[in-house]
Design goal:
The protein is of the alpha/beta class. It folds into 2 domains: 3-118, 3-Layer(aba) Sandwich (Rossmann fold), CATH 3.40.50.2300; 125-219, Arc Repressor Mutant, subunit A (Orthogonal Bundle), CATH 1.10.10. It contains 8 helices and 13 strands. The strands form 4 sheets. It has a 5-stranded parallel sheet, sandwiched between helices. A 4-stranded antiparallel sheet has the order 8-9-10-11, with helices on one face. Strands 4-5 form a two-stranded antiparallel ribbon. Helix 4 packs parallel to helix 8 and helix 6 crosses helix 8 (186-202).
């Protein structure tokens, strides 16, 4: 049974989310003390985190950015903000999905299920050129240097690696990431590709992913 941590300061909404998740077969845990959210994030042992952006004395996006330095637990940002910039910031900081309020309970559950499905660890080990790829750890290692990938970045890299030298379309990538075309976000894919490229560049492989205009991407 998957455990979901709810970080939402609106008590009514937090309770509604807890009831919804428990009725759906999850174990829901609500944060009630917002004085030390950062520590709670790291110690919760949750399988997925639902987090609001606007929290008492905290910014959810900043918390997410700090959390991603050490943890790859999937995070869905749940917020009343509707600006595209906020979504891009959240995704660039490592969010696995972004849902605005008021939310549709059925859609929210589908999005949670999709994130949990695509972020499930397989423990598979792979090699790309002289890069060691650990899907269990979520890392790329080369010549003593290591880069931690988010779940989405690893899924993108694995699909490109499985089709190394072949063109992988944006539609194929988004299907793998979101499982259902209804949940596709083209901007989020671009952000994830850019982050993955930067991490490969930090390992000395700045040209690893080639863009084929109007076609897709190739892992060279």
């Amino acid at each position: 049974m998957n455990k979901i941590l709810i970080i939402e300061d609106d008590k009514t909404l937090s309770e509604e989310l807890s009831i919804l998740l428990n009725n759906a077969g999850y174990t829901a845990e609500k944060v009630t003390d917002f004085g030390n959210v950062s520590s709670l994030l790291k110690s919760s042992g949750a399988d997925l985190i639902l987090m609001d952006i606007n929290l008492p004395g905290e910014n959810g996006e900043a918390l997410l950015q700090e959390f991603r330095k050490t943890k790859d637990t999937p995070v869905i940002m749940l917020t009343s903000r509707t600006a595209e910039l906020d979504e891009l910031i959240s995704m660039s900081y490592g969010a696995d999905d972004y849902i605005t309020k008021p939310y549709n309970p059925t859609i929210l559950l589908l999005r949670i299920s999709a994130v949990l499905k695509r972020t499930r660890k397989t423990g598979q080990e792979m090699i790309y050129k002289d890069v060691h790829v650990s899907t269990l750890k979520g890392t790329l290692s080369r010549n003593g240097a290591e880069q931690m990938l988010t779940k989405n970045e690893m899924l993108i890299f694995r699909l490109l690696l499985d089709h190394s030298g072949e063109i992988v379309s944006r539609d194929d990538l988004m299907t793998v990431l979101w499982d259902n075309n209804e949940f596709i976000n083209d901007n989020a894919l671009s952000v994830n590709i850019s982050r993955l490229r930067n991490k490969l560049a930090d390992l000395g492989l700045p040209e690893a992913i080639e863009t084929r205009k109007k076609q897709g991407y190739v892992l060279k």
